[in-house]
Design brief:
Length: about 200
């Protein structure tokens, strides 16, 4: 087994999907949480290919881009689905979650309170209802207990990551999507993921 060192900020953010993979696979890694002072120096040193985090050091190789790192680890840990169609389904969920997170981040950093409220309203009344129906449909079409087969994969972890944020705003968010509601609870009950969520550092996002 190679040595793994994940460097990211003390946030869930773009690093958490990688931490979920290590947790579910039961693989040891260094969870290196960088302070803003350390980041200034690290960025200047040019160790990160895009001048951004996360990066994952696998022995002496530096991997970058969170989704690429997640896909790499999922394949290493047999959490990447079995078929081409499984991989499509995982990619579709990853992209859908990416779209949702982009909206969240945009709203979070909006300084004008009127624009912020307007963006929030558009998200909850227009974007999210369409998103939920589409994700529920992708799940139901699979006809299995997880997004891509009958065991947990990277697709489920992306969905769960988004679900945690959505539930932080509205605990009942999946009420009208019975498939997603059951799926969320099934993933939440994964014992390794549960253990990680209980012990991880508490951060706002
Ligand atoms: N596409 C990249 C985006 C990475 C990214 O935006 N990283 C942010 C934190 S979430 C960052 O490093 N910000 C600090 C900076 O740019 O100086 C990925 O998914 O890894």
């Amino acid at each position: 087994m190679p040595s793994y060192k994940l460097s990211y900020f003390n946030l869930r953010g773009r690093g958490e999907i990688i931490r979920y993979l290590f947790a579910v696979a039961g693989v040891a890694y260094e969870d290196n949480r960088i302070t803003s002072e350390e980041w200034g120096k690290m960025k200047a040193d040019g160790k990160t290919p895009f001048g951004q985090l996360p990066i994952l050091e696998v022995d002496d190789k530096v991997l970058c881009q969170s989704n690429a790192i997640a896909a790499y680890l999922a394949r290493e840990f047999d959490l990447a689905g079995k078929t081409n169609m499984d991989q499509y389904r995982i990619s579709a969920i990853q992209a859908a979650v990416g779209d949702l997170m982009t909206k969240f981040v945009e709203i979070h950093f909006e300084k004008d309170e009127t624009i912020k409220a307007k963006k929030q309203k558009t998200l909850s009344e227009e974007f999210l209802p369409v998103w939920l129906v589409a994700v529920e449909k992708i799940y139901q079409e699979g006809g299995t207990s997880f997004f891509a087969g009958d065991s947990i994969t990277l697709g489920d972890l992306y969905f769960f990551f988004a679900g945690e944020s959505l539930k932080g705003v509205n605990e009942q968010v999946f009420k009208s999507c019975p498939g997603l509601d059951g799926l969320y609870n099934r993933i939440a009950n994964n014992s390794e993921l549960k253990a990680w969520r209980e012990k991880r550092p508490k951060t706002d996002f």
